[in-house]
Structures are given as C-alpha cells and as structure tokens.
Design goal:
single chain; 85 residues; mainly beta; 1 helix; binds iron/sulfur cluster
C-alpha cells in the first residue's frame, strides 16, 4: 500500500553508475527486475513515472463527442490534439 504522505528517501549510484533506489520504494511502485519506467527531466529534477504494470488511474472515454466545457474536466489537462474540435 502506498501512503499519501510525502516522504523523502535516498537513492545511491553504484560502482557501475546505476541508480539504486531502496528496495521498499521499488516494491511499493511495482518496480520488479526488468521493469521499464519513463523519466522526465525538468529544471533541477527528474521525475520517475510508475511502470505501466502499476498504474493508479485509468480514464476511459467512450466518446470525444462531449461539447460541454466544464472547468473541472480533465480534458483541460490534455494537449489540443485530444480535445474535440
Ligand atoms: S467533465 Fe468534460 S467530458 Fe464531462 S461533461 Fe464536462 S466537459 Fe464533458
């Protein structure tokens, strides 16, 4: 179970230059041997996404035909290519 509480943990770089994260963190996020994760680099940080085998949310949109424009719609967070014309 993953806590909603923010915590700080430390990772280390081993002798081969590989980043090693604590086993409990890897286990909590489904990082099994061979798992592939996406890394996004930002200004002074690297964000590691969960592997696709460990998703927390899945949105299913059976249609893009909605012509409303609710301010809370999560489509607002998507790129223009995903919005209905
Ligand atoms: S939340 Fe988004 S998809 Fe739902 S009705 Fe509003 S605009 Fe349409």
């Amino acid at each position: 179970m993953i806590s909603g509480k923010q915590t700080t943990a430390w990772a280390e770089v081993d002798e081969q230059g590989r980043l090693v994260i604590p086993a409990e963190i890897a286990r909590a996020y489904g990082l099994l041997p061979g798992a592939r994760v996406r890394l996004d680099e930002g200004n002074n940080f690297v964000r590691m996404h969960r592997p696709v085998t460990h998703l927390t949310k899945v949105y299913i949109e059976p249609t893009v035909a909605c012509n409303l424009d609710c301010i809370t719609c999560f489509r607002n967070a998507w790129g223009a290519a995903y919005r209905a014309a």
